[in-house]
From TrEMBL:
PROSITE patterns: CNMP_BINDING_3. The keyword Transferase applies. It holds the Pfam family cNMP_binding. CDD domains: CAP_ED. It comes from Pararhizobium antarcticum. One of its GO terms (cellular component) is cytosol. Residues 15-118 form the Cyclic nucleotide-binding domain. Coiled coil: none annotated. Gene3D superfamilies: Jelly Rolls (2.60.120.10). This is Protein kinase. Keywords: Kinase, Transferase. GO terms for molecular function: DNA-binding transcription factor activity; kinase activity.
Amino acid sequence: MALNDDIALLSIVPLFADIGEDKLRLIAFGAERRRLSRGQQLFREGAPADCAFAVASGSISLSRTVRDGSIEAVQTVGRGTLLSELAMISFVERKFTATAEEESEVIRINRQLFRRMLEEYPEVAAAVEARIRDNLQTMIANMEKLAPKFG
């Protein structure tokens, strides 16, 4: 795929929506493409995460282990989804196992590349911080809606 295709893909990822094309070009240039065969695991739940993956094509199923040891399907995601976005900023574990549902392609964005982007472009850091803050507030609001069911 061409660099311009990767830039177009990154521009539809919500975390990168407010980042200019010139800066997306730097991310795309430093990122690595990976092809996955149907059934191939991209990463496993509990593994250390040092990068995020943007789904370029195909579909990826996310699953997790529940308390009784069984595997629970969480959701299936496709083009434009960013998996493990916090791994670009800090040390975290994978919360799910990600498996290709079909022939798929992802773009791997490593922590070092992303941190460099944040250091060199404070406006990008501000936009990313705002996006993460919004995501956390949405998650908290959703959890508060569930609280009465458990109280």
